[in-house]
## 1
Amino acid sequence: MADSLSPSLIHAENISVQADGKTLLDNISLSVRQGEIVTIIGPNGGGKTTLIKALLDLQKISEGSVTRTQNLKIGYVPQKLAIDRTLPLTVKRLMTLTEKNDHQTILDALNETGVAHKLNDSIHTLSGGEMQRVLLARALVRKPNLLVLDEPVQGVDYVGELALYRLIENIRDRHQCGILLVSHDLHMVMRASNHVICLNTHICCAGKPAQVEQSEDYKMLFGQKGLQTMVPYSHHHSHSHDPLDSDILDGEDCSCGHDHDHDHPHQTHEGESK
Ligand SMILES: Nc1ncnc2c1ncn2[C@@H]1O[C@H](COP(=O)(O)OP(=O)(O)OP(=O)(O)O)[C@@H](O)[C@H]1O
């Protein structure tokens, strides 16, 4: 389990991203440590995918810096996978498209995510949840020390969502990797996280899940939906996680003193300070 002394696998320091004269990210700092699940939540268009891309060097940053630990191996499951639906493609083939792995390695990864029985099936016949599990397995064959999952529960129903988050927790426990998770949907996501960052161009609030729940900014952004979502969290989360002390505004409400217009992200905010 991670502790506050674990070194950061990846660390962003005051990064900002501008594109087309627009600020997409404003002064964001965050760290992901070994054995830790960090979740980025926020409204549509809040900059979650942009932040992931900036961390992965897929998006140019205008200010700030990103530091990665030496030998960092990242397994990335993007939000969208552009696959031509007319292209015949089995799960096995998908698993070897970009990396050559032996049969047993592929089978082990698919076993771990519970979809080994789909090995020879066409990916076009998979359910949303099965597809996400295949993509997770595909990221796992690289034996990453950092898993980056952009909306891993998309297309998955409530029960499947819960199972997927449990699986993600198990992967974290088994591999002791760091996990950076993105979601705009709040169902269950908080429960699985050590640390939550609420992003709406800038960081509105961040900290341990129970602390974010108390944040006025969180309540304003997610309203009743957010409060309802936290119920399962409060009831289940007294035991197994080892929440981190974090260098990111642990449990603090946004204390900048600015008014936030959450429907229309703007950039007058200083963002998070370390
Ligand atoms: N390359 C770009 N140039 C200009 N604007 C961009 C670019 N990439 C993203 N944007 C804009 O930045 C904003 C944030 O997009 P992003 O995809 O990061 O949001 P998100 O939080 O992941 O949203 P969602 O929850 O809908 O997936 C959006 O308004 C988007 O249109």
## 2
Amino acid sequence: MSQPKSSGPGPGRSRQTQIFVDGLGGTRPLVPVDPEGLRKAARRKLDAPAFAYLAGGAGMERTMQANLDAFSGVKLLPRRLCGSASRDLSVELFGHTYPAPVLLAPLGVLELAHAEADLAVGRAAAALGVPFIFSSQASEPMEDVAAAMGDSPRWFQLYWGTDEEVTRSFVRRVEACGAQAIVLTLDTTLLGWRPRDLDLGNLPFLRGQGLAQYLTDAHFRSRLDTVQLPAGTPRPSPALLKTAASLAAHGRKFGLSLAQMRTAAAHFTASYTRPDLQWDDLSRLREWTTLPILLKGILHPDDAREAAQRGMDGIIVSNHGGRQIDGEVGSLTMLPRVVEAAGDLPVLLDSGVRTGADVAKAMALGARAVLLGRPYAYGLALAGQAGVQEVIRNVVAEFDLTLGLLGAHSARELGPQHLA
Ligand SMILES: Cc1cc2nc3c(=O)[nH]c(=O)nc-3n(C[C@H](O)[C@H](O)[C@H](O)COP(=O)(O)O)c2cc1C
Ligand SMILES: O=C(O)C(=O)c1ccccc1
């Protein structure tokens, strides 16, 4: 059993030792190790609208809390005198071996956190061999991020829009980018009710942010001279001028005029999602690509069964980090029943994963891997690529230590025997 390469996320002891040795010389970690400290440091660093969008959730954020509570409610149960000096953290998914059971979740609009956005995250993921799931709402085009990552693993998250030519075009581009899987997100057919953004009246897409996949898509661009803007021109105000400046800046980056950018923001808003997408539609995606398809946002076991019957390849149990329905069930709470219903399909999980011990809990409950969400965006905000790398290293280091302390030799052997 092989350990991850030294360039990989790394075994826990060395990371922990490194932090303490650095501390002897007065050097502190680049970003807070404590998850709540990490969030607070990002809040101090970011402007209010950026932090609201990245950190916020739906309604009173009760589902965000439920995600954390679900992890708190699961208790690990270690065994003694059966441990190992080193652990094998690797996992296999769809014929690929990854160094640890951790992927980077698709997060839109990363330019809110850092100017280098998805490029910095891609480089961090590549440095560690951890797969990065590119978002449909990315700030940098998939081709550029893929180029920045070399041969390192990348997946792609798809939103299925009403302009199906664009959706189909994304799938072609994804294949050309060397993605190893497509993740179809099903829980954002409508934008959730998010008071933090509503109170600031801020939706990044209307400012041209988070549209890089669309603005570089030939099919999407072909619409920009034909789609009509809604009538009625608002009176100029300082805020509107700021919005125009943001649209114009994004237009310059992607070779589009301000008028085209206004149309792009309107066309995106009108077409990015299909609230009436049905199970039968999945057969078209299945025909378009031979890549593994995972459905993200599954919570009900019957939906997992349906996914298996429809020829899907995997499931991501998720409630979108509590950003969609306030009051929906915590993601980890549904994991065991979804795993049971999914049969042979690999089940991954996100929403509320904050620590290495959380990774161990999800795997003990049957997840094959987890997606890390907001924590890496906070690392990005604080220290760019290096901040993202450090957040991943810390989570993986704690996971490795947790395995060792549980008496497990490998990530794969985690199971109900490790739960109280
Ligand atoms: C700022 C932000 C943007 C997101 N954008 C997307 C997206 O474009 N596509 C998607 O499938 N999920 C998106 N998500 C959801 C994440 O992929 C993931 O499900 C969630 O962040 C996990 O919860 P956690 O942040 O509590 O770990 C986004 C989440 C955040 C916080
Ligand atoms: O912010 C999100 O969580 C997200 O995924 C999204 C994507 C497209 C439109 C609005 C929100």
